[in-house]
């Protein structure tokens, strides 16, 4: 067989309504394709300073050490663990989805001892269970949890969990990969210690960057460690020389174009205003939810208050081939949604409305595409009903906003 | 002080003649800014297959496991070490520059024992010294060396070093960050085991990706390891499920836009033909060298055969403020060159002609800018002499190529 001739790649145009990456604003794409400059260029160094300022705004913190790690969210996660967990350390890890499980893996590979607080997939982490674990393990040093579990669509109460941890003299490691910019995350007000995120979710930037922020407590601990951090690349003591101080020394080559893009994505967030961005995610989630409910579809996460607006996990109705639905959404409508992970594989779909993707056109496209596919597969849904419900939701929200505005003035 | 208002970043337009990143071909920049798609999208999966094929061509190998790691060259390096070095393993590491030193750090952090073969900065690694080390340490498992030392501009004889290693039953870890696509690197013919590179040097792609290739010997070793690789992110056993097999499962989110760019950069290499790319680097290096010599400047690497065409390390003439020269090149001519690293800091400049940057316009710009700056600083150079020498070099090369072509026909 002759080898296929390879030519330039032309990606199809997709609406990305899965668990990330989300669609990227053209302004961000344009920034990414600006000519590269050196990572020690004075112009680049100025941009790094702005990036840190913008990231502090996104995280709602004034932590000095707030910067983007040159790697995907998983590297952000591993960076927190390798720097903060020394061999033998006890770490309370809360698992109510896939990513809590990944945290456990990280603790083990750092030769720490994970104290696992098992939760139910689709329910928030239980602060009482964490308190119990800490009482039983007074020598635990760290509490680690996922703020927004992308695998279930459930949010946990990061503020309360951090309070419990600090009461027991523990530092916190918080996964904010999916929460950052999608729902309230207040690093300073909630007093979180090490928080990592990723670029491709509600920031709608190119995948491959992991914004992180560390409290001074974390820096004190890491700079005071006697043993060497097991990863050279992730060792904060070395990275501080590039991102932390004013005199910069070479550590590794920064992903320059990706950072151009992140700068622009964060600027868009700043321009919209983070509260407005949170509210936008809520608004479109409400409309999408109205549509799902009109179709008789059920959420995995039962309590409204526990649901993430940026990712809705929907139970696959009985008798429906879930993979076929996803594949038709993609091939017939160019809409990508997510499958279930781990024990939820085959049982749920995940619909993301993250960042730039969160708009009414996408809500409508998704509901009408899904309705059309499901009805052809024999699922009892009247085409048009879901869209009508979504429109009604937008209208109701509009009215209630107007009423609120009136009552304020 | 009021915070400065942040607006969109507009990078200056630079000619990148340092040790990388190099300038990026507009075709590659355009590819990078194409709309993002999902990392499990069938279209993306097809592109991944092409990427692997193109990377095999660049590495001159048919290794099955050849793929781009989602991180800079340093992550490529660390990935090789964490997967291949278990606690207690003896690893012969050759150090004749900065990056050999980084390899030693990696061995130590994997709790291996480095057997250091110290070399002279600016000279190639001595195969006899490696052989001696292996004779003294018959239980060594790995030999690690840098093919192209970016900190000195020196190339080592990878083929012979690999022969010595294999004679003593050792696997090889080879740093090809700067060599890939800039000078001959023949992974299959030279029988190299684990080879990592980076995207931002002679491939002239965006920084932040690390192409790697592993022989079956490496895969057998890693899949057969009883203990767990200390890094979750870099564990080849997990990554194989995404890049290695036909059924893909989620591991981490791939840097999609960066991979679009890498695909295009590798396609450009394929279109030019790798031998032609190597020859292009040689041709422009010869001209640049002629210009340097006309100015009376000296190379750190004495022997012509040991010099890397893609990076020339030049001794700073006595009495010249090296930092001022670099800063003027940047501010007056938009030309970035590199400073010396480690013990060479303040003593040398590094002039890169990597990938897309390697063309005659840049050679001429660099020589004329440098001549102008040096002469104003009182260094005895006649403006125009270096350029004339470079032109003469191009002309001579042209004649000798024509002669060769005639004698072949
Ligand atoms: C909650 C959470 N944590 C961590 C990650 C890992 O991020 P990445 O895929 O960028 O490595 C993800 C990615 O989906 C996530 O949703
Ligand atoms: C020989 C060599 N090895 C490793 C690296 C590290 O690559 P990166 O800076 O992309 O992490 C470099 C970068 O300059 C290099 O020149």
From TrEMBL, chains A, B:
Gene Ontology molecular functions:
alanine-glyoxylate transaminase activity; L-serine-pyruvate transaminase activity
Q: Which residues form a coiled coil?
A: none
Q: Which UniProt keywords apply?
A: Aminotransferase, Pyridoxal phosphate, Transferase
Q: Which residues bind substrate?
A: 350
Q: Does the keyword Transferase apply?
A: yes
The segment(s) forming the Aminotransferase class V domain are 48-340
Q: Which GO terms describe its biological process?
A: glycine biosynthetic process, by transamination of glyoxylate
Q: Which Pfam family, just one, is annotated for this protein?
A: Aminotran_5
Q: Which domain of life is it from?
A: Bacteria
Q: Which family does it belong to?
A: Belongs to the class-V pyridoxal-phosphate-dependent aminotransferase family.
Q: Which PROSITE patterns match?
A: AA_TRANSFER_CLASS_5
What cofactors are annotated for this protein? pyridoxal 5'-phosphate
Return the protein name: Aminotransferase, class V
N6-(pyridoxal phosphate)lysine occurs at 201
Q: Which organism is it from?
A: Oxalobacter formigenes OXCC13
């Amino acid at each position: 067989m002759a080898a296929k001739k390879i030519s330039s790649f032309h990606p199809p145009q997709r609406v990305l309504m899965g668990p990330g990456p989300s669609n990227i604003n053209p302004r961000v794409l344009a920034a990414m394709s600006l000519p590269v400059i050196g990572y020690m260029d004075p112009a680049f160094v100025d941009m790094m300073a702005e990036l840190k300022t913008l990231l502090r705004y996104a995280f709602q913190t004034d932590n000095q050490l707030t910067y983007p790690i040159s790697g995907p969210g998983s590297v952000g996660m591993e960076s927190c663990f390798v720097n903060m967990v020394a061999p033998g350390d006890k770490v309370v890890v809360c698992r109510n989805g896939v990513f809590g499980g990944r945290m456990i893996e990280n603790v083990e590979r750092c030769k720490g001892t994970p104290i696992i607080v098992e939760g139910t997939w689709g329910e928030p982490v239980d602060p009482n269970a964490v308190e119990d674990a800490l009482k039983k393990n007074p020598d635990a040093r760290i509490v680690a949890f996922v703020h927004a579990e992308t695998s279930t669509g459930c949010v946990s109460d990061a503020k309360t969990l951090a309070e419990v941890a600090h009461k027991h003299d523990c530092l916190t490691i918080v996964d904010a990969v999916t929460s950052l910019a999608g729902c309230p995350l207040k690093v300073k007000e909630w007093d979180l210690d090490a928080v990592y995120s990723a670029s491709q979710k509600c920031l709608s930037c190119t995948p491959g960057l992991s914004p992180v922020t560390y409290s001074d407590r974390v820096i004190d601990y890491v700079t005071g460690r006697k043993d060497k951090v097991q990863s050279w690349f992730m060792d904060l003591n070395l990275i501080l020389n590039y991102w932390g101080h004013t005199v910069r020394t070479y550590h590794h080559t920064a992903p320059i174009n990706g950072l151009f893009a992140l700068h622009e994505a964060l600027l868009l967030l700043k321009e919209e205003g983070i509260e407005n961005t949170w509210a936008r995610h809520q608004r479109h989630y409400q409309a999408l939810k109205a549509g799902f409910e009109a179709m008789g579809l059920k959420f995995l996460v039962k309590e409204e208050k526990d649901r993430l607006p940026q990712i809705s996990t929907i139970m696959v109705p009985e008798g429906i081939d879930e993979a076929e639905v996803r594949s038709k959404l993609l091939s017939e409508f160019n809409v990508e949604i997510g499958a279930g992970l781990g024990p939820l594989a085959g049982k749920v779909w995940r619909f993301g409305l993250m960042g730039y993707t969160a708009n009414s056109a996408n809500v409508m496209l998704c509901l009408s595409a899904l309705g059309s596919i499901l009805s052809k597969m024999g699922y009892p849904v009247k085409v048009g009903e879901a869209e009508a419900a979504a429109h009604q939701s937008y209208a109701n929200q509009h009215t209630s906003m107007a009423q609120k505005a009136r009552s304020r003035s």
